[in-house]
Amino acid sequence: MITVDNLVMRFGGFTAVNGASLTIREGSITGLIGPNGAGKTTLFNCIAGVLKPTSGTVTMSGEAITGLAPHQLFHKGLLRTFQIAHEFSSLSVRENLMMVPADQSGETLWNTWTRRRRIAAEERANMKKADEVLEFLTIDHLADEKAGALSGGQKKLLELGRTMMVDARIVFLDEVGAGVNRTLLNTIGDAILRLNRERGYTFCMIEHDMDFIARLCDPVICMAEGGVLAEGSIAEIKADPQVIEAYLGTGLKNKVTAQ
């Protein structure tokens, strides 16, 4: 579905992504791991249109999408979440979801005067869908709570819910488990698996929790120093000497090998 070919992202004299090439298969949950500073989030930002890469290409189902803006990719079904949730804190959880669908009639001032019935019908449909999403994520009891009052894990569920309000084809998750307690992390994992298996969502996720990666992801791609270091199952990645060295350093790698 997504093919990244020889992607480079430079910031002045610093190269954050250095010739990275990878493929994200349609219908997969692909894990992206690597030590801090490996270029994972910068790669996400290049794919999702937050950054325009210095060179290289990104294609989606054979269509060139390199350098397209986030709103253009949104309409193509490519969405991303962030390590720090971006909710509308003063709106309710339900209202946060209802804002997601694009091109709502109520967004145009003229329509608020001339097409009130259409606006009301759209709002009823969006509210119904939002309630279905909240029930799917098992947070329907929070529908009327202010989004800013949610816990970190609940905000991550809300971000996942926003991807469900549109016809997402592929979702990039940036450390969805960061700062989330184990119970909520399991809930998030269950939701991702159900979306993948029941609704055909494709996911690519950056994550440091290896147990979470092992439960959800196949394949797993490891990055280091801006490039792709290894790819395979979680068992293959954990056993790869280059991956061990990237995470632990040469000295610890030799110690592990000796043991």
From TrEMBL:
Domain ABC transporter: 2-250
Pfam family membership, one: ABC_tran
PROSITE patterns: ABC_TRANSPORTER_1, ABC_TRANSPORTER_2
Single Gene Ontology MF annotation: ATP hydrolysis activity
Keywords attached to this entry: ATP-binding, Nucleotide-binding, Transport
ATP-binding among keywords: yes
GO cellular component: plasma membrane
Annotated Gene3D superfamilies: P-loop containing nucleotide triphosphate hydrolases
The protein's name: ABC transporter ATP-binding protein
Species classification: Bacteria, Pseudomonadati, Pseudomonadota, Alphaproteobacteria, Rhodobacterales
